[in-house]
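I hope you will forgive my troubling you with a question about protein structure. Here, with my thanks, is the record as I have it:
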Amino acid sequence: MPQTLFEKIWSQHVIVDKGTETLLYIDRNLIHEGAFHAFGALAKEGRKVRKPRQSLATADHYVPTRDREKGLANVVDADAREMIRLFDVNGAEHGIRCFGMNDPQQGIVHVIGPETGFTQPGITLTCGDSHTSTHGALGAYAFGVGASQLKQALATQCLWQKKPKTLRITVDGKLGAGVTGKDVILAIIAKIGTAGGTGHVIEYAGSVFRAMPMEGRLTVCNMSIEAGARSGMIAPDDVTYQYLAGREYAPKGAQWDAALAMWRALPTDDGATFDREVSLDGNAIEPTLTWGTTPEEALPVSAVVPDPASFSDANRRAHAESALRYMDLKPGTQLTDIKIDRVFIGTCTNGRIDDLRAAAAVLKGRKVTVQGWVSPGSTLVKREAEAEGLHRIFEEAGLEWRASGCSGCAAMNGDSVPAGMRSASTSNRNFEGRQGKGARTHLMSPAMVAAAAITGRVTDVRTLTGGR
């Protein structure tokens, strides 16, 4: 019978199927400092990591983005400092390759996986982080796990799982000027809601995704978790193969040819069925941003803040009322009239080289009117950006150029937004207090953040780029 991309990968990794649960083989694990619980449990049970070469680790969640050269002494929080120390200890003890705080390949875990070629089509991949869905952009089945599951994966290279349902989201048409992968995924979540993908693996299909560069695909799959999905996936194609070719962990020579033959067989077969189908018109998507306190509370930049009374669902209406109180917004306000106090460009969602290029293109020759910083998604991205002179564009515009890390996304290491201030951010979550206690976050694309930095308010980036 015809199979979907997900069904092909799932069936190829089944060890035991009990009907209600399936024991799956896990090809690769990604690890960050927060994995100390799993390593502690391994030590308590006297276990070792079964296949160290199938794991890759990086320090990202708790490392500072400023004064990195000062080492652990620069990590103010004692708990974070201990996690970073244990990261190095556990990696050495178990023979896992680790990109420590000052390693030239250090970066955010969901950036370094693809950029090293460790993430590949057709594999199963786990990490102790919800945004592991990012890696599905290369045609992998990737999902986040908790500490106990991570321990099991490290000790046995397999996991018991319940098989998710499948949801295909098709976006056809052609994206307009200034519209990116971030706008597409925000439009999708606004349509299906933060619970719209619950219990499902999403496959993104249609001409919009086929034309989308890998960086955009990574952004879309990254935020699948914000729609409640177990994972997000895009079928591998020539964009995928060109992205992977020559990367450190990618197959070489005859192994590349063999891998390519397997990868080309992965896309969903004609006639395969999904449990659910959703479609959007890519031609109609505008630059999009959030106005509330969940990613589904998003609208095109041309819209106005909605009136909670317009929502027929009582729960959505109540949440909108609460969101407007927290965000200090009034119904009917043009989104472009919303003042911005801080900006942040980075994270596993939008910290890749194309994201930085897009922001720099808007900022070049201009000055910002608000404070903010740029944190590349990895040290390799940072070096590439510096080789292209992007850091000078950011600095000359008036933004800080920092090291790679997750801090700005979750208000750690002092990388936070003061209470009551409003942030334009390329991150993936806008919950109350996400970027700091009392901080108000508007999610948007890197180019839109750059536009807000220049004007000091939400701005349609197309007005600054002549519609390009």
Q: What stands out?
A: The mean pLDDT is 96. The chain has three domains: 5-161, 165-239+259-284, 290-465. The longest helix spans residues 78-94. Residues 5-161 form a domain with the Aconitase; domain 3 fold (CATH 3.30.499.10).
